[in-house]
């Protein structure tokens, strides 16, 4: 979200970033203005419960193979609305955000797809609103399928957990339910066409621009490697204990130990402590900005997180994805279909299986060629600064009468 916020600010607009107080330093560290709203939602507790197996994994593959059956769709909302969606959009956050929007009266609210509080605040203040997608639009596609399936049912059988929760939330603020609150007036799409999920909603394509926070580039990154460099990253969530990774770091590094390659693994102290040995071709680092590291890499092994996958595409790096959570298995499958990478299922990971896949993406030119095609698709999309005018036009079109 940061590059778009910068672009809007540079174009002369007032930009405020509303989120829980725990993110205030992160927001101001990006040079943006933070507005704390609500109590911290305790997302780490939700993810910890999932890691213990109390919440089943979502199989978004059903969205690619046709229209999921109604039981799958209803189960999706029945499971996630009370345990996840409402938890990360708690009442204090929604109430504070509505108060902010009614006082400040923004013209446009841009929200990430899991923060329906942004849609509620937009309706409460008359603002236009848009979702900024950070991956395939699994939530938009799911909602489309669900609404169609719901319309085919008799009224007495129309159970809509998402609509009921959002309707109740809107009524608390004197508003009626509007379907736009579920997915915005339009969406801003950062994925290139080959790895998108199409939805029946107006979308504004925008080039993905990596943002890795304040960082210093170490000298060794600037020196061209003497042999192929392979990045290994399991993402920020796995580093801070909020992720659900079951991947053995030892098996992962052992699988790369006899490659004629320099392996750069981003691990924190806790992750390093769990290793019994470190192969001689592995460089362990606490942190290095991916947008500085990946231009020197010939391959990357990662968990399928949005930032890592987008940055790898930006620099045409073939990927081996070890997906486990949310939409990562879907992204990995879509990437493999383009020829720009391979999928390594976490439950099937052995040193030998990983070695074989990384050897393929390093040794077979087709993977690098496909990665370059994907990069060219991504780079053909307008940069954040270039979409500001379209966002201004859409804001004028969708802005509502202020109540």
SSE layout and pairing:
Layout: H1 2-10, E1 16-19, H2 24-29, E2 33-36, H3 43-51, H4 70-88, H5 91-104, E3 108-111, H6 117-125, E4 128-132, H7 138-151, H8 161-171, E5 186-189, E6 203-205, H9 219-222, E7 229-233, H10 235-239, H11 249-254, E8 262-266, H12 269-273, E9 282-285, H13 290-293, E10 299-302, H14 306-314, E11 319-321, H15 328-338, E12 341-343, H16 351-363, H17 365-379, H18 384-398
Parallel strand pairs: 1-2, 3-4, 4-5, 5-6, 7-8, 7-10, 8-9, 10-11, 11-12
Helix pairs in contact: 1-18, 5-6, 16-17
Protein name: Glycosyl transferase family 28
Pfam family, one: EryCIII-like_N
Family: Belongs to the glycosyltransferase 28 family.
The end-to-end distance, rounded to whole angstroms, is: 29 Å
- Largest sheet strand order: 9-8-7-10-11-12
Characterize the overall form: globular
What is the alpha-carbon Rg in Å?
A: 22 Å
Query: Strand portion, in percent?
Result: 5-15%
> Could you list the spans in which at least 5 consecutive residues all have pLDDT below 50?
52-56, 237-244
Whole-number count of domains: 2
Which structural category do the helix and sheet elements fall into? alpha/beta
SSE series? HEHEHHHEHEHHEEHEHHEHEHEHEHEHHH
Q: Number of helical segments?
A: 18
What is the fourth-level CATH superfamily of the largest domain? Glycogen Phosphorylase B
- Mean of pLDDT: 89
Count of strand segments: 12
Can you tell me the CATH topology of the largest domain? Rossmann fold
The portion of residues assigned to helices is 40-55%
Main β sheet profile: 6 strands, parallel
Tell me what the CATH architecture of the largest domain is.
Answer: 3-Layer(aba) Sandwich
Q: Regarding CATH, which class of the largest domain?
A: Alpha Beta
Family: Belongs to the glycosyltransferase 28 family.
Domain Erythromycin biosynthesis protein CIII-like C-terminal: 252-394
GO molecular function, one term: hexosyltransferase activity
Keywords: Antibiotic biosynthesis, Glycosyltransferase, Transferase
